[in-house]
Design a protein that fits this description.
Largest interface: A-B, 51 and 51 residues
Largest sheet of chain A: 9 strands, mixed
Distance between the termini of chain A: 18 Å
Radius of gyration of chain A: 30 Å
GO molecular function, one term (chains A, B): proline-tRNA ligase activity
Subunit structure (chains A, B): Homodimer.
CATH topology of the largest domain in chain A: BirA Bifunctional Protein, domain 2
Shape of chain A: globular
Oligomer: homodimer
EC number (chains A, B): 6.1.1.15
CATH architecture of the largest domain in chain A: 2-Layer Sandwich
Low-confidence stretches of chain A: 199-204
Number of helices of chain A: 16
Main location (chains A, B): cytoplasm
Mean pLDDT of chain A: 94
Catalytic activity (chains A, B): tRNA(Pro) + L-proline + ATP = L-prolyl-tRNA(Pro) + AMP + diphosphate
């Protein structure tokens, strides 16, 4: 490809309304152009990248045995009423009336359509298992579309749906898809994690998210150095603590006149923060509860809320705290409450000896506190804290924290949709069975933005090679003045092409400064400069996108470097 | 590909609601499944064919220098208001309101969006010419969607839009696109014609339609055996007639008591129908007009309507005829009218001598009539008739008639959209110039149906090889009983694969009858049968889809036959 015959339109200025770096760089490189809120045109440059992602996804889905179909974007209301989602899906569903006033929506997802397809196509267990996928345009009417294609309204998605006679077979295909996803994100050259996820509103039995790691990611993730364990910070678990040491101190009341936080108390007493205990007072339908975590930890609301009796808990008011503990916040503790209370101790707290808690008396804490001696053993011991960086993981590794951008999701849906829509097959005994379903999504257009969030510097995008619009840019210095420069570049390009390396020839006749700036901005992994001076010396200037400096290479060395 | 791992779902019955053969066969083969009126899911089999078409279109568009982009399907109302089409486009425009009550439509075409893209992207004549294309889903809310994907509401289209500084450059690119279209339809293996077309409502200066020939086609076409001339029957022209012979008969009144048609008069008089003249009485704003065509011809309403003063003409009433000619229909003629009338003679009528017309008197015609002697030379001589099969074409060839399905269209739009939307560039003198535009469409999904209309028999589809889901089907007889059969088939498939021939292995274990019926129904061009008996004899059974019988070939001959 010659850049003079391509349409490249870059800008130096960072657009004022683009908040995140991928959005800024996609606009500056001209990869996308906004048509309306959350609706973008993909320019020739942007589409080249999008198609690379699409092709890798398609190849790996095919290799994993999934079969490609193409479902419509416009879906009839009646189908969505069969599953109850016409009413339940919410404002993201773009509802449409056609000229005959029939109700439709622009598909934000295709569970209803594929289940309808399956109930007509699949009659016998002999046709199972089967996994249908498509790469197709979806629309979600986001209330606040932003960040360019990261959270667009119209977007490109790969969605797959598998059908099974048994849940065991679904679980097998689920693992097959997980493995395919790992191959896809590995091939794309992205740093990513497969993360345990709550299945949330979509329902089903098991699910996992795939996140591209990037500082700007919306989701907090925890992963272990000891295995591929990764989880959303909201659900991540550290290793259980070791056994509780024996008590070695007597309980004593200590003066903490203004020290209301664990940090301040630990500092005053000259002890480790890990030996203090934070008491969090909450109310539930069953009454007052004191949740205890170590001073260096924080209560994880999702974990706490999942314990029996803790659904819909709320913070206790000062009056409720006074009534149950007889003290004001800042000095609370589980020892000797005014009224009987339920105590829930985090596993780490239950494993402490000689610890420090509030004395339920303004200006005082209790030190050297021990379970079973100074207060009863806790009624409930559970993991109710959020993990922190440096925690030991269950696999023996260390917990690290990162931020991620969700680009994929695998679900075991089970029979939710098949049941609602009557998607059955006959089993070996000729008995009608509702099929079990899995669904597997990848945000194809979102991956492009996520890759930029992970791979950029102050000069622009640094594409992972498999996603780059071209692997190599061959820059011509003064092509109009010297036919030898064009000839040498074309010969180089021909050899690279033969070796399967995709090149672009920058023959636009720009001066080196603006030309190099463009090539760096659009993130081409390898840059080769062909100049009269270099040819005279028998060399080409080569520079990798992320390298600090260029090097002079002869033709053979250059080809070797570029894998040709 | 093994058919046992694919999803093939064929039906023997012809669906009752499918009127045309392509719709019937696409349903029977399971290529498509209806989701709603005019909205279809493409099954794995259907999508394989659709993708083949798409890929050939993409390759040739790229080779022609067009650059691929991807525009959104959802388009804002404001853009359509800039060109006035929001109000004018009519009911086919699917209008949508989003959650914020902003107006959008599902794009039925993309002139507005690409012109908006261009006015932001293109600033200088140096960026021209450029031709942007996309292969993308469109929606037209047809009032009566029918014939499956032939006239669907949601469909896949390739649309291209070129931008130019001058009309001359537009004309050059228009020819470039026509040549690309010819390559595309030739590569697809379809019999087609490039047809001169009225640009109709879309506007612009020149346009041509591409039609796949098929008996079931909606459009009547005329083409010449002498060149690539082809035109819609409505606008096709034959060669001009030779000079008028000298008069040799005297005019005489002949008795035609019940003969009101030219056919009956010619029969009665024992003369050729070509020597009779049909008089068609019409009214215009300027008064009464008698249009004359030969008895073997018919008036072409479009040609007649384009003559000066003939826009909005209508048939004359009996009262109007009586007032002007003093006779009733069936005996009308241009000789001696009651009042002065305008006579428009078809070129062929003006070239007649000694012809027959009505006498403007019930029960009589005039024979031996001659221009300039018996009546004045006609006021207007023009081509106002429809061509008929066998006419001589201007290129010396013979006119033939056919029916066609429109699958492509190229337009020189000119400045209509660029003017309305202010899409300008600076020219060499730094002066702002409105760009000239071309647009070029191909109905990708429609091609699939059109190809079937052209290529089928009583057993099913007969795909042109480039569009076939697979080129070769290798059918296994009793694969479970004989491992040698599978082994031989796999080895054959490996050799064909190496030669770039795409095969499918029918390892479903069906009996030969149903298996062969499926393979024929889905139209695979080449069928190879691998059986125990054949292997013992050292042969494979081969049959081309359109062949009358199978032949026994040894391995080398088979591979040679299949181009491997």
């Amino acid at each position: 490809m010659r850049l003079s015959r391509f349409h490249l339109s870059t800008a130096r200025e960072t657009p004022a309304d683009a908040e995140i770096v991928s959005h800024q760089l996609m606009l500056r490189t001209g990869m996308i152009r906004k048509l309306a809120a959350g609706i973008y045109t993909w320019s020739p440059l942007g589409l080249r990248v999008l198609r690379r992602v699409e092709n890798i996804v398609r190849e790996e889905m095919n290799a994993a045995g999934a079969i490609e179909v193409l479902m419509p974007s416009i879906q009839p209301q009646e189908l969505w009423e069969e599953t109850g989602r016409w009413a339940k899906f919410g404002g993201q569903l773009l509802k449409i009336r056609d000229r005959k006033e029939a109700g439709y929506c622009y598909g934000p997802t295709h569970e209803e359509v594929i289940t309808d397809f399956a109930r007509h196509e699949l009659k016998s267990y002999k046709q199972l298992p089967v996994n249908f996928y498509q790469i197709q345009t979806k629309f979600r009417d986001e209330i606040r579309p932003r960040f360019g294609v990261m959270r667009a309204r119209e977007f490109l998605m790969k969605d797959a749906y598998s059908f099974h006679l048994t849940d065991e077979d679904l679980a097998r295909e689920y693992e097959n898809m997980k493995a395919a996803y790992i191959r896809i994100f590995t091939r794309l050259g992205l740093e990513f994690r497969a993360v345990q996820a709550d299945s949330g509103a979509i329902g089903g039995d098991a699910s996992q998210e795939f996140h591209v790691l990037a500082e700007s990611g919306e989701d907090g993730l925890a992963f272990s150095t000891g295995s591929d364990y990764a989880a959303n910070v909201e659900t991540a678990q550290a290793a259980a603590p070791g056994p509780r040491p024996a008590a070695s101190e007597a309980m004593r009341k200590v003066d903490t006149p203004t020290q209301k936080t664990c940090e301040d108390v630990a500092k005053l007493l000259g002890i480790a923060l890990e030996r203090t205990v934070k008491s969090v007072a909450v109310m539930t339908d069953g009454g007052f509860v004191l949740a205890l975590v170590r001073g260096d930890h924080s209560v994880n609301e999702i974990k706490l809320g999942k314990l029996p009796g803790m659904a819909d808990y709320r913070a206790a008011s000062e009056a409720e705290i006074q009534a149950h503990l007889g003290s004001e916040p800042g000095f609370l503790g589980p020892v000797g409450p005014k009224q009987a209370i339920r105590v829930i101790a985090d596993r780490e707290v239950a494993a402490l000896a000689d610890f420090v808690v509030g004395a339920n008396e303004r200006g005082f804490h209790l030190a050297g506190v021990n379970w079973g001696r100074d207060l009863p053993e806790p009624e409930t011991v559970a993991d109710i804290r959020s993990v922190v960086a440096g925690d030991r993981a269950a696999d023996g590794g260390e917990i690290r924290l990162a931020r991620g951008i969700e680009v994929g999701h695998v679900f075991q849906l089970g029979r939710k949709y098949a049941e609602a829509m009557g998607a059955t097959v006959l089993d070996e005994q000729g008995k009608s069975q509702v099929m079990s379903m899995g669904c597997y999504g990848i945000g194809v257009s979102r991956i492009v933005a996520a890759a930029i969030e992970q791979n950029h510097d102050e000069r622009g995008i640094c594409w992972p090679e498999p996603m780059a619009p071209w692997q190599v840019a061959i820059c011509l210095i003064n092509p109009k003045n010297d036919a030898g420069v064009i000839e040498a570049a074309e010969s180089l390009m021909a050899d690279l092409h033969k070796a399967g390396v995709d090149c672009v020839l920058d023959d636009r006749g720009l001066r080196p400064g603006p030309m190099f700036a463009d090539i760096e901005l659009i993130g081409i992994p390898h840059r080769v400069v062909v100049s009269e001076r270099g040819l005279a010396a028998g060399t080409f200037e080569y520079r990798a996108r992320r390298a600090d400096a260029a090097e002079q290479l002869d033709r053979a060395a250059l080809l070797a470097k570029l894998g040709a």
